[in-house]
Design brief:
Strand order of the largest sheet: 1-4-3-2
Mean pLDDT: 78
Shape: flat
CATH superfamily of one domain: Beta Polymerase, domain 2
Strand content: 15-25%
CATH class of one domain: Alpha Beta
Structural class: alpha+beta
Radius of gyration: 34 Å
Number of helices: 13
Distance between the termini: 48 Å
CATH architecture of one domain: 2-Layer Sandwich
Helix content: 25-40%
């Protein structure tokens, strides 16, 4: 921060003697008196009266231009607010007597209890979660019904979902922030309104831990993943037990730890899980020897390092020759311009090139303005003739929610119901949102527009845009 940007070199604190029911009113009166006398900096106003910090801090901060042209920070608090700010959370209970409403402190302590209840977390993980969840600045976001939720800076849509309810977070596939579809990793800002989109088929996955920041979200995701891992590991336990019985060995914790160490895994749970998912086939088990109840591993053998093989995928792309039909098509050869790839039904014009004959461009082609303004004498009026025997290649970009079966619905609609030929299709999914590029052969623009409308009618599809194929 530059020295010129430091506004609190000079600060004044005003303590107001006020009754609890008139605190806000009288603090704002003091603010009005000060700003009537001195010019305030509007962007430096901090209203922690309406939205106190999660640690209980309440005050009104502003910065005014004082005598001599110096910025002065002014802090306005009541006696109660000052005692809580100076003496910490314990001072809160002095003022809470006679109140039975749920305070933000109770929520704050509840969050800390949740973090402490996670028995599997290491001390380093706990300290990191504590810093990111409780000691950072907060943002204030809203539910569709207008309820306020506090989250640490950097919180994502998935953090918000877990704040609403663990079941909502576990089934979250996407969100709408200010009515705009976003992935679950989208970082929230103060003032955002969030609507969570869920699916009964969704479940937490390890990638979620890369972007959530709240301790509740992290602990619930880890718990779910561990429970799922334990359930799968039971199958691995049964497989290993049969193998050990065949060697007259005992299934005990010491032998499990020995095997986990041999396969360089962190725990016996990881060992049983990897056996269950067939990552470990236990072929090396025959090299172990049994002494009493104990498994003795073989002596380590230096492995020969193999150079990775490189494979080159064959290029299966096939150039498609496209022909356009218009007036005098029996006399002049028409070719499509690669810059805009027009199809029948598009508004087009012909342009006479030097050496390449007549090329057809769309009127909204990126080069259209330059060609029409600079080479008007080489422009030819062109119109399309109906010819349902010729197909034209064009591309569609599809964006929507990544739900189970969505790709099947898209391909079934295009190829099955509308009988449109698909040339190529690529799909990428990230954080609950998929983006697909589909190249299709259509006869004209009407057929393309109908295809777009039908795709948009599918559940979960947000946008369908045409793009120019290469």
């Amino acid at each position: 921060v530059a020295f010129e940007e430091v506004y609190d070199l000079f600060a004044i604190r005003i303590i107001v003697d006020s009754s609890p029911e008139k605190e806000k009113e009288e603090c704002w009166k003091v603010y009005s008196i000060i700003t009537d006398e001195y010019n305030p900096s509007p962007e430096r106003l901090r209203d922690w009266l309406s939205n106190p910090k999660s640690n209980g801090y309440e005050a009104l901060h502003t910065t005014v231009m004082g005598p001599g042209g110096k910025w002065v920070e002014v802090q306005i608090r009541t006696k109660r607010m000052n005692e809580i700010a100076e003496k910490g959370l314990a001072a809160h209970w002095k003022y809470k007597e006679g109140k039975d409403d749920s305070s933000r402190f109770e929520k704050w302590f509840h969050q800390i209890r949740e973090a402490l209840s996670n028995q599997d977390a290491s001390s380093l993980d706990f300290l990191q979660d504590f810093k990111t969840s409780f000691l950072t600045e907060e943002i204030y976001v809203y539910t569709p019904k207008g309820d306020v939720k506090m989250l640490p800076v950097g919180a994502t849509a998935l953090d918000f979902a877990f704040t609403v309810h663990t079941a909502v977070g576990s089934k979250c596939i996407g969100a709408k922030v200010n009515h705009k579809l976003v992935p679950i990793s989208h970082k929230l800002r103060s003032g955002d309104q969030i609507e969570i989109i869920t699916s009964s088929k969704q479940k937490p996955n390890p990638e979620w831990l890369n972007f959530v920041v709240t301790s509740k979200a992290k602990s619930k995701i880890k718990d779910t993943l561990k429970e799922e891992k334990r359930a799968i590991a039971e199958e691995g336990r049964y497989t290993l037990q049969r193998k050990l019985e065949g060697m007259n060995a005992v299934m005990n914790q010491a032998n499990l730890d020995e095997l986990a160490n041999f396969y360089k895994l962190n725990s016996s749970l990881d060992l049983l899980y990897e056996i269950a998912v067939k990552k470990i086939d236990l072929k090396e088990l025959k090299e172990f020897t049994v002494h009493g109840d104990k498994l003795i591993p073989p002596k380590p053998v230096k492995e020969e390092v193999k150079e990775p093989e490189h494979f080159t995928k064959p290029d299966n792309r096939k150039d498609t020759e496209l022909i356009i039909f218009g007036e005098s098509s029996d006399k002049i050869m028409y070719t499509l311009a690669n810059c805009c790839k027009p199809i029948p039904g598009d508004d087009v014009f012909g342009f006479i090139t030097t050496g390449e004959g007549l090329k057809i461009h769309r009127t909204n082609c990126p080069n259209a303005t330059r060609l029409l303004s600079n080479y008007g004498h080489r422009v030819v009026k062109t119109k399309w003739a109906k010819n349902k025997e010729i197909s034209f290649l064009t591309g569609l970009k599809i964006i929507g929610l990544d739900d189970v079966g969505v790709i099947h619905k898209i391909t079934n609609l295009i190829s099955g119901e509308l009988r449109v030929n698909i040339s190529a299709m690529t799909i990428e999914a990230r954080d609950g949102i998929f983006e697909g590029n589909v190249k299709v052969f259509v006869h004209d623009k009407d057929e393309l527009d109908n295809l777009v409308d039908e795709l948009l009618s599918l559940p979960g599809i947000e946008r369908v845009d045409r793009y120019d194929t290469e």
